């Protein structure tokens, strides 16, 4: 099946990701591609970070036991992998092999914004009374060409945070 129009037409490659027997994505919530066209899938299953080649062959996986609620992933120009964990209120930096290098935020300690975890679904966003410091359920991370880290902190906060490389 084709998607798009004109020169922006794409074909769905059904069954692209080849997972080992018994493995699957549970809430695949983040995706990033590195400079070597390796595809990093961040999901809430038993194997949180799964890395595939461009043909969909699983190369490696890592992150077991490290995340509470995986959300966003970004691979930097140097190959470092940044993962947001909205359940632990952190952003973590890893090597491409999964070695932890840096944690931003205080694990398990959300910033005070007035956010209520399980209010009436119609009032969830309205429960944020004020923006606060990092983090209260961060959702995504992006990197600038000069090394700044930008984090969207939007489920339980109302901010985008910028971290300088200094």
TrEMBL record:
Entries under InterPro entries matching the protein: 6-blade_b-propeller_TolB-like (IPR011042), NHL_repeat (IPR001258)
Lineage: unclassified sequences, metagenomes, ecological metagenomes
Assigned keywords, A-Z: Glycoprotein, Repeat, Signal
Organism for this UniProt entry: marine sediment metagenome
Protein name: SMP-30/Gluconolactonase/LRE-like region domain-containing protein
